[in-house]
Amino acid sequence: MRKQYDVAVIGGGPAGYVAAIKAAQLGGRAAVFEKSVLGGTCLNRGCIPTKCYLKTAELMEEIAGCAQRGIVLDAHPSVDLPKAVAHKNSVVKKLTDGVAGLLRSHKIDVYYGEAALATETTLTCGGETYGFDSVLLCGGSKPGVIPIPGAESKNVLDSDALLDLEALPRRLAIIGGGVIGCEMAAAFHGFGSQVTVIEAMDRLVPPMDEEISAQLKKSLEKKGIRVLTSQKVSAIQDQGTGSTVLCQDGTRVEADKILICVGRAADLDCLGALKDRIRLERGKVSVDEQMRTSIPNIYAPGDINGKHMLAHAAFKMGEAAACAAMGRPEACDLRYVPSCIYTSPEAAGVGLSEKAAREQYGRESILVGRYFFQSNGRALASGRGEGFVKVVVEKRYQELLGVHILGGDAAEMIAEAAALLHAEVPADEIADMIHAHPTYSEAFMEACAAALGRCIHLPAGQP
Ligand code: NAI
């Protein structure tokens, strides 16, 4: 045995590196085993790279709209994709180096290589065996696949490959109108591709509030992105250098590249020799509130358990698993995990959708308040009058149940909503809280007041 640890962590993504730091903070001897680069999907192939591209796309849109502000541009702007890739890679490197530095500062050993469980108390990596008291399986997730003819075409990419394309596809078809589909559509449309999104369900991002889905579709279409909903893809056929995506109703979408983003699957490789002994549920590792698997000293926080495939949820789950592994269990409250889509405008939500609230509390027990950015001074001055804040409130106690935002800074604004939901602050108190003027955040306060029929900045009689 090469070394023995209190806590061994397989996977250095958001769940894994945070868990290792937490274990070290609690006095544990910890190690991280990483088969690629620290930072996981979030830093290397997900949240951060896409945000680089989306900012570039947003800048292109703002440049296109700057003439009405009196800004005169002489040249027609375009995106140099290899430079955009290099910029994205430099941002990613800064952050992944930061993670490595954090781990070093906590004296956490990092091993690069593919690790897998050998027994309940040992793992192997690079031909060596390491021992542990507890192990955290933080293997994350990988892009899901759809079993259709032609899915193996050379023109079909997953989101990892799309992020490293150095030549812009003239026509991009995106199968799956979820979070990744919408963000990639916005980014590549901004770069200059003709984009079509094909979604099987009757709306984009089905888990979000229905009004957000509807408004997001309108917003993408207004930019020039083609959005097809209720469309099941039956096959992909290659034609010369391009391909055709065939839908079950006969619709054909011609494309040079096709992105498939229909959800992500848990990456179970790290289960190794214990893969038949650790309980799974629909292909994901089954865990309790402390992230403990069916084997008590083995934990599985993050995407691998499929509870919330989001980096910020993985941070929390990683901490919870480390605390439990170190014998200091803490509550892991995942009720108010915000979800954000970084399109322009952004979409974000936390808590119950209107539909879920009406189902849970009864149709008549719910109040809904909306405030549109069209009436918000900061939004108008910034050229971001699109969208709204919608709050879902329980009638009797004015309990805030959910907040849904489509608008310029939705992903930042949702933090206040999540904090107040967490603190169980009722809507009437939020309506009374002073918000700085002019800010986008005022729209949240106004929406709470609107739900209670006392919004100052809405015409009388308007709900
Ligand atoms: P997703 O679950 O968000 O969306 C997949 C979409 O594909 C769904 O709308 C589904 O109805 C549709 N779909 C499934 N099969 C289909 C088919 N055969 N034809 C057409 N449509 C089909 O998954 P996505 O977008 O791949 O994202 C994966 C994960 O990564 C998600 O859990 C997401 O939350 C996370 N993520 C989060 C980001 C963020 O927070 N901004 C950014 C990127 C990813």
Q: What does this protein structure show overall?
A:
Helix 1 packs parallel to helix 8 (311-325). Helix content is 32%, strand content 25%. The mean pLDDT is 96. It is globular and about 75 Å long. The protein has three domains: 4-141 and 265-325, 3-Layer(bba) Sandwich (FAD/NAD(P)-binding domain); 156-262, FAD/NAD(P)-binding domain; 345-451, FAD/NAD-linked reductase, C-terminal dimerisation domain (Enolase-like, domain 1). The N and C termini lie far apart (69 Å). The protein has helices at residues 14-25, 40-44, 47-64, 81-105, 159-162, 179-191, 210-223, 311-325, 354-361, 377-381, 410-422, 427-432, 442-451, and strands spanning 3-10, 30-34, 109-112, 115-117, 122-125, 128-137, 141-143, 156-157, 171-175, 194-198, 226-228, 233-239, 242-247, 252-255, 257-260, 264-266, 280-281, 284-285, 298-299, 339-341, 346-351, 366-372, 388-394, 399-407. It is α/β, with parallel strands linked by helices. The strands form six sheets. Strands 1, 2, 3, 4, 5, 6 and 19 form a seven-stranded mixed β-sheet that branches. The protein has a five-stranded parallel β-sheet with strand order 8-15-9-10-11. The site of 1,4-dihydronicotinamide adenine dinucleotide has 27 residues, from helix 6 and strand 20. Residues 46-47, 146, 175-181, 183, 198-201, 206, 232-233, 261-264, 309-310, 340-342 line the site of 1,4-dihydronicotinamide adenine dinucleotide.
